[in-house]
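User: Here's a chain of 258 residues. Predict its fold as tokens.
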Amino acid sequence: MQNRWTAWILTVAVALSLSPALWAQTSARPEVARNTPDLSGIWIQSPGRLQGRFSAEDAPLQPWALEVYKANRQGVTNPGQSGLNGMDPEMYCLPEGVPRVYTMPPPFELVQVPGRIYMFFQSLQNPVPRYIYTDGRGHPEGYPTTAMGHSVGHWDGDTLVVDTVAIDEVTWIDDAGTPHSEALHVVERFRRVDHNTLEIEFRFEDPKAFTKPWTAKKVYKLTPDWQYIPGFACEDRFKTDFEQKSLRDKKDWIEFRK
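Assistant: Prediction complete.
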């Protein structure tokens, strides 16, 4: 019994001696900003002539990227939209990704909580939620490329600055078919101009696809009466094919169950 009691005391002593080190590790992460503006709301893009793209002028594309852009635009007459020429990733039910999701006509919802921001886009093809970490963490090493990439944010006064990397090169910059590489780096600056207006400034850097960084800006209006509707076009597109192949409500299904 005495040996057990001695062992317990030693265990407690070691734990107490290590607690300052553990506290130091916990405190190493920067403190989350306090008293920041609340960007939460449901936002819709303000009407504009070129809603489907980020700039009235073409992006400063490298030669190879310009050729890809021309191929993406082949047979398309509307300057702000893609066409049904088989080049749009959307046609294959791939998610739009960042930053193309911002050029979509439907609204998006932004939910702001301590240490994190969630964004839900009413995508027509493949709605994917976005996570923006505002707890002081950085980009992890070896993070896989995804449509939404990896996003971290911090506050600069009343402006939320979001840094995104690891964006899948299959996605487009916008509906116009502007390509990019896996080196794309997007910086967004969110600012609530007034209660009903959200302004987002974009900076695009990609030395493999662009000759220089370039910027754009989008303005969104609050739409409190809109509600998120689950489901997307790809569901309807493949549902019919599945129903035709399914054994449900068919004689073959009954025989199979036996």
